[in-house]
Automatic annotation (TrEMBL), chains A, B:
Keywords from the named record: Hydrolase, Magnesium, Manganese, Metal-binding
UniProt-annotated site: Transition state stabilizer, residues: 152
Cofactor: Mg(2+); Mn(2+)
One of the GO biological process terms: DNA repair
Protein's name according to its UniProt entry: Exodeoxyribonuclease III
Organism: Sphingomonas montanisoli
Site feature (Important for catalytic activity) residues: 224
Family: Belongs to the DNA repair enzymes AP/ExoA family.
Keyword Magnesium: yes
Amino acid sequence: MSSLKIASWNINSVRARIDIVRQFLEQEQPDILCLQETKVRDDTFPFTMFRELGYDHFELKGQPMHHGVAIISKLPLHDSGRHDWQDNGEARHVGVRLDCGIRLENVYIPAGGDIPDRTVNTKFGQKLDFLERMIAWSAELKEPTLLVGDFNIAPLECDVWSHKQLLDVVSHTPIEVETLGRLQASHDWVDLGRHFYPAPARLHTWWSYRSPDFTANDRGRRLDHMWASPDLAKKATGHYICEPCRSWIKPSDHIPLVTVLDV
Amino acid sequence: MSSLKIASWNINSVRARIDIVRQFLEQEQPDILCLQETKVRDDTFPFTMFRELGYDHFELKGQPMHHGVAIISKLPLHDSGRHDWQDNGEARHVGVRLDCGIRLENVYIPAGGDIPDRTVNTKFGQKLDFLERMIAWSAELKEPTLLVGDFNIAPLECDVWSHKQLLDVVSHTPIEVETLGRLQASHDWVDLGRHFYPAPARLHTWWSYRSPDFTANDRGRRLDHMWASPDLAKKATGHYICEPCRSWIKPSDHIPLVTVLDV
DNA sequence: GTGTCGTAGG
DNA sequence: CCTACGACAC
């Protein structure tokens, strides 16, 4: 029995953010870091800093301009898989198996555009379709799995700064919440955030860049999540968010999430 | 009789370079700073840092994308003028009069493109024409004047890392050197650089960004100059270049020049 | 190499 | 607000 610390962070460009990624790793010392929105091709991924800190194992799924996910680890990674559920070339998923037997699945669910109507905004339809394809995949999972990433959905009323004002804002619409609910049900996923901090605790993971005084009005949302298979959830001994990272210099608009497992 | 310290620097974007401009001002504490290639519109000029350091007087001539010159001063500035000698809207000159009676003229002479042939490269023709118009202007100057800026010409053999290899490279061609010579003759300008460091002393003010190890082979050129009216030159008590600035983080490709006058 | 800008995406 | 990219200039 040993302790395993896993972090997840939408980094909004791993190259532009390399200094705060280092700062986070030095401070939290996770065994594994899952990144979303790396915005880098695999052949220009900034390996050096990670290797300097003892992270020698990488599973990358990048693309030229947008999206991009990565798993960066001090521990060996096996049986990596990259789902392109919508067969559109977008780099939104990478998964691995760890020596301890658990699978780690890192996903960046589409943001979904501005207008929450699939008839006028194809991106919103793509987001819902992406979730449907994840549901089919998730229902078949057999191994104990940690599913982490930027889900771009804040499901509960207390997951946004104003439930009423965000009911028609992409990320908190009823159709998204309902679809995410079916994804959760498809594997009986345990939402570790709410497992450790039951509603209505405040647990925001994202604040828009567009209000520079984001701490003043605190208009955040919980868009990032870590979900565990039911049996695996019992092994989670700790879970927390790293809110101070949002105030670091040149921050990401998202903050890191951390889960500690006894494995 | 008091001492007046004037600096000139092609800064290659005053906004991108704001930290090293502050570092330079704190270190050298000039009374007046002349900048070229500010690359900023006058309405978005970064006044704040300069005011924090006691520079309350500004004469700006900016434009949206390229070029742009500025005079930033602890001392009052009067009778400002902006010549657009070629009437093409390019922000390449600003001049002022100081309380001590001398005029300060800050100019950014066109680079002139890659090919030193005015029949195939209109930019080279524009550079020579710009010099001709400066000659006509300079010949009529009556006040004691300090003419500073990025002249984009290295006139002497010792002003470039290899006279032979640069004879056909824009900035050191015979026609440019001859034309700059006539500009100098038109007012009997004293080249303060060579006044204080006679040829063949090394006195480079620019090193290309394209060789990252610029200190290794030292392929520099003396493109930046400070010229004084004959009588004013007698009042120059010091002159130097600030070569370490080329090694600062996020440097300009040019270094600052400094002249001290007893006025 | 290192800026500017416009466009696209968040 | 913040990023990436591509075109252009130096």
